[in-house]
Structure formats: C-alpha cells, structure tokens
Amino acid sequence: MVVYNFSAGPAVLPKEVLKKAQAEFLDYAGTGMSVMELSHRSKPFEDIIQSAEQLLRELMGIPDNYKVLFLQGGASTQFSMIPLNLALGKKAYYHVAGSWGKKAYTEAVLLSKTLPFEPILLASSEDSNFDHIPSFDASSIDPQAAYVHITTNNTIEGTAIYDLPDTKGVPIVADMSSNILAAQYRVADFGMIYAGAQKNIGPAGVTIVIIREDLINTTPALSSMLDYKIQADNESLYNTPPTFGIYMAKLVFEHVKSLGGVVKMAELNRHKSGLLYDYIDRSAFYQNPVKNPADRSVANIPFTTPSPELDKLFCQEAESQGFVNIKGHRSVGGMRASLYNAFPLEGVEALLNFMKEFEDKHGH
Known about the structure:
- The protein is about 35% helix and about 15% strand.
- The strands form four sheets. It has a seven-stranded mixed sheet with strand order 2-10-9-8-5-3-4, covered by helices on one side. It has a two-stranded parallel ribbon with strand order 1-12.
- The protein is of the alpha/beta class.
C-alpha cells in the first residue's frame, strides 16, 4: 500500500533527499564518519553550513545586509527572542490571524510583565475562529515601534498572507514556518523572517532566522543563547548546532534549486492546492472554513463533511487506505491536507478519488 503523509509537521521530505542522506549516512564525503558524528568545528561541517546558507540566500534572494542564522528551539523560542532583542523600550504590534500568531502575542504579553516594552494587539480574527485574515488601520501604528509581527501562513486554520500589509515603514517580523520556500516573498520587504524547518526545509530541530543587520541588538540580551548578536557573531556556532538537521536542510535546498527554485515550487503548490479547492468548492458535501478565497493557504487545506461523525469516519477510512495524518488539528476538528513542497501531485489526485468515493457512499 502506498502511504501519503499529510502531516502538518514534521512533514514529508523529498524521497530523493532521503535516498541521498541514506547513501551518505555511514560515510560522509570520504570522512569515514556519519554527519551525525562530525564535529561542528570541523572543516567538513563548516562546508555544510556555509553551503546551506549560500543556497538559501540564492533560493530566497536574501540581500547581503541580512544575516542567516541556524538556531534551535523551534519557531516558538523566537516568540521570546524577538521581543527580548528587538522591542525593549518600545512598542511591538501583533497581527493575530491564527493560533500561532496568538501564541506569539501571548508570549510577548507574558514577557512584558517583567521587561520594559509594550505588546499591542493590532488585529485579530479569533472571534470568528480565525476564518479570515483581519484588516487594520495602518494609521494606528506608531512609526517608532519596534516591529509588526505577522504569520504568513496559518497551519491550523488554513489561511495565508500573500500581499504584505502597509505598516508605515515599521519593520515586519514574519513567522514563515509553514510556507517558506513554498510561496514567493521579497526578503527585503521584511525586517526579519523566521521558520521552523520541519515543514518545507528538513527534520525538526533547526530554526531559520533571516534578520536585517540594523535590527540586531547592540546591547546584551537576557541570555547568551537568546541573543541574536552573539549567535550572528559566532555564525550559528556559539554552541553545538543541530548538525544533522542543517545537513538535511542543505540537501533540501539543493533539491529545490534543481527543480527550479521557489518560483517553480510556488507554481506546483498552487496547482496541487487548486485541484483540492476546486473539488471542495464544487461539492455540496465538503466545506472549507476559510471565508475569503484570497486568504486560502496553498500549504494547509482544512475541510469538513456535513457532520463530526462523518469526519471521524472519513479519517478512519482514509488511514486504512494509506492517507495518514489527515485528521484536522484538535482545536478545529475536521480534516486537514498539508501539501508542502515535497508532497507529491499523485497524492493529491489519489485523495480526490477517495473523497469522491466517500461522498458517493455517504452523500445521501
């Protein structure tokens, strides 16, 4: 039985990448050692991390005045690092269009109880279960604020921001965890981008931070490990980084480049998600909760049947046929198809056939 992994993360990786890693697993580049055994101070690993950075710069068009960091702690650790390094003595705005944006704002509020900065909720769609991207009045933003925080793709709710909001020149800090390398953005339009690797880049354990140099803190942060300047000055080697995860990221970057880069990935993702959205829109049996089609994510597509009972049955029957991890997040229920870069087109086509069979069987 063919298995199609719809997990929202850790997510499917390209088979070509897994095969290459397998072939090099016991002996990387003639060293006689696995990558997992290499010292992070060694020349072979130095080549890996420098190559990974250069490939990412090329894929995303990262300007020279931005630092690229390979950190640990997942994107959630950035919820603390960002205000600690960027916001002290200032205001920081939070645009909350999903559960992860809410977590970032909640963490900022918690930190503000002991640290001198003011987190401000700029807009939120929580009152309607995050079924749309909320708008806001740009004139309400203090031009002296540290940043406006956004989430470019809401993994749980299935919404995304493709056209960046007007922030009156205040730097945009973006959690891009679930659509980095999957949709096109101009890095120069952001003050900072961060992303957990486990959706489009590699295994869990690596966090990518792309930060404009003038935003890097000049005074020490609360903790050395949480200090962007220390991490940048040490080129992500202040302590032992997730070496194997960075190596896997490099292989994924090489793979994406070989396929045509982010432009090609975005095109493929629009096609894959479009097939599924078109079927849902034509069906009277399935529903997508996102109100505005322009807000729809190409990475995460939530959908439901007419009842929770049928949703449960759908997930059970789907798993028995090899469609795994398609159950929706526990906070919203239903189903969710995560169609990241490595998810194959034939998996979408197979899912559509199953959905039609299920609808024919239970649609009456």
